[in-house]
Write a structure and sequence with these properties.
This protein is of the alpha+beta class and about 325 residues long. It has ten helices and 16 strands. The longest helix is centred in the first third of the chain and has 27 residues. Keywords: DNA-binding, Transcription, Transcription regulation.
């Protein structure tokens, strides 16, 4: 079987071509060589392997069981070689062409749009089509090359790369806390004004966990519900009540003091499942250079931990 290692890639390609077409003559016509030359090379393969690969008939050539088995592995080898060749070719090139990106509205405004000028300066042959929406986009039907998604990741037929963890804070303005008092436990939120995000699945639930204890949900009430996170954040800045939002949205307000973290000893979330910020792309063996370059750019830009979680607040 050592002779198997001596089979050339060219011979493997001819073998797979015969397997696909079931004809020496058709492969010979496509390759511009004689049928006898194709037949001779297949015979040399069979001699090297000690296995008959084809049954020869007057009108067709059919694979034996050994031929089908070799064909399965030969196709994988040739596909991997083609992929390697494409990757090497792209390595010598610059990312170029249009890349279609879909992202949530607020996250796109705060953490994608501010970096686009640098991205385009780094890759001047790249053009970006950025669509921002909080509506559900089916990743299997969407035409986008890259989707930024936030939440609990599931198996959607997409591949992805985690960009950052989704962390939450409960917060209110100093004006509101001076007027209404500072809640010391989640139970005391029943006496406070809570500003609730209401998405496609209904009003947001608030979960709390003290170190060493289980997550618990608490009843909420307040003067405002809405489906726009920035509007609710502005209401909190204006002293209307408390909000519970991810740090990527309110970190700057927490740092400059216009919002203050409430119940800092508690972990807070709107879900009992781990949430992530991720870049998703259609499944497949080969990731295009432009998509890989954009993902790598944002991975480096966000950092680990993400820049919005650095510094404390």
């Amino acid at each position: 079987m050592d002779k198997f290692n001596d089979l050339s890639i060219k011979t493997l390609r001819l073998f797979v071509a015969v397997l696909n077409h079931g004809s020496f003559s058709e492969v010979a016509r496509q390759e511009g060589i004689s049928p006898s030359s194709i037949s001779r090379q297949i015979q040399q393969m069979e001699a090297a392997l000690g296995q008959q690969l084809f049954y020869r008939h007057t009108r067709a050539v059919n694979a034996t069981e050994a031929g089908r088995l070799l064909g399965f592995h030969a196709r994988k080898v040739l596909a991997q070689l083609a992929e390697a060749g494409l990757a090497l070719q792209e390595q010598a090139n610059q990312p170029s062409g249009q890349i279609r990106i879909n992202a949530p509205l607020a996250f796109g405004q705060l953490h994608i749009a501010p970096h686009l000028a640098e991205l385009c300066q780094l890759y001047p042959q790249l053009s970006i089509d950025l669509q921002q929406t909080d509506s559900f986009v089916d990743p299997l039907l969407a035409a986008e090359d890259l989707l930024f998604r936030i939440g609990v990741l599931n198996d959607s037929g997409m591949q992805g790369r985690i960009l950052a963890a989704q962390n939450y804070r409960l917060a209110a303005s100093p004006t509101y806390l001076a007027k209404a008092g500072v809640p010391l436990t989640p139970e005391q939120l029943q006496q406070h004004q809570c500003l609730i995000f209401k998405g496609d699945h209904g009003p947001q639930r608030w979960f709390f966990r003290y170190p060493g204890q289980d997550w618990t949900a608490h009843a909420l009430r307040g003067p405002l519900q809405g489906n726009n996170a920035k509007t609710l954040t502005q209401a909190a800045l204006d002293g209307m009540g408390l909000v519970m939002f991810p740090t990527w949205l309110i970190a700057q307000a927490l740092r400059d003091g216009s919002l203050v973290t409430v119940l800092p000893d508690y972990a807070v979330s709107n879900s009992l499942e781990q949430q992530q910020i991720a870049a998703l792309y259609p499944g497949g063996r080969h990731l295009s250079l432009k998509v890989r370059a954009v993902i790598d750019f944002f991975v480096a830009k966000y950092g680990s931990p993400a820049y919005w979680d650095v510094g404390g607040f």
